[in-house]
Amino acid sequence: MDPSPSVGPPPGPIASLGSLGPLNGFPPPLGPPAWDPPSGPDASQATDWNPQPGTGDPETWNPPAGTGASQTWNPPSGTGESETWSPPPGTGGPEAAGWDAAAGLAGPGAPGAPEVPVFPPPRGAAHPPPAPSLPPPVPADVPVAGTSSDSLRPDRLLRTRRRPPAGGWRKAVFVLSRGLIRPTDSKAERHRQELIERVRQPVAAGHFRVAVMSLKGGVGKTTTTMGLGATLAHQRGDRVIAVDANPDRGTLSEKVRMESPATVRDLLNDRAGIWRYADVRSYTSQAPSRLEVLASDRDPAISEAFNADDYRAVAQILEQFYSISITDCGTGMLHSAMSAILDMADQIVLVSPVTVDGARSASATLDWLQAHGHQSLASSAVVVLSAVKSPRRNAVNVAELKEHFTRRCRAVLGVPFDPHLEQGSEVDLELLRTATRDTYLEVAATIADRFGPGAAS
Known about the structure:
alpha/beta; 15 helices
């Protein structure tokens, strides 16, 4: 049947799928049939046909915009040709996927389209290996592990070093075995090491002032000052100084070998020219423990002039060059320098003998401190009972004394009697008995517990 001379496809049936050549069993891309617009008097009916710009193919027909026309080709009526293209059966084309030439290709996810089946790969086909996970690139400025100076640690470079025992049979075994056998430390040695760690903690405020005082003379106040100061200086690496603030010719300078004849008065007179630690060092004497001592005037006639303002001036100089200063106070509470000493002190050490009158004097000192606005110093005070003998030789109940002061102070410690301290001469830690050294170490650790931030407030 010949088509009418109207706008439409060229005469003849649509080419079959086999003539177009196989393409993996699927039809070629969908598009309207190729046709040529008529010429002659009926050309006006094809005014809506425009070739697609840039394709060079004038056989593609695009409907005019806004007309509602469809790109689906409709054959002329009566030709017997179908409006829907279906692939030949058995070709595996998109017929099963719901593809319709009139509605366009219904891809996955299109409304109303059936789910596209997923076919497994042919048997024996190898799956592609997963992509290897590569580590992130290392920045150029980051050193490789083990190549920086931080990797040269002592625990990796040095062989195991063993600290020899302090003494006794443990030290003998260590020496005889040439260090191959190292017995564990005793309980006393472990306690001693804990005390040393407490003593060596840094001073958070930069400077710490300790005032050693008593109302009664001859009770071991100056000896306690030297024992405490020598222990702190020996165990620590910073500078510790003891200042003699006794207006009645103090004896602190007699506890150390004198290296300089200068006194605290000379330091005050020359304070305008002091700028360095070496300048201050020329006014002090140093003990074998590295404790420095600033002596007081040995002439009672002029030592009375040492007042509160003088002490404040000396304290301000020393705090620039020393971490800890220990003041050996006078025996009275009302002399002129005592008010400044108490105002600037961070900790007081109250020394008492193991006697009835000495204990009463020490307790009265605490009463005076609480009555004159120094309640914090009284409650945080450390009481040292000096020259404590064995219970058999002591008529005073030492346990009762400790219990009394424990209720009023922070700590109570008893320094045992020591022949080296009884001599009243220079104090050398190496010449003290082990029990005496350990007691001073415990006193120093108790004082150092307040070195931390906020502990002295």
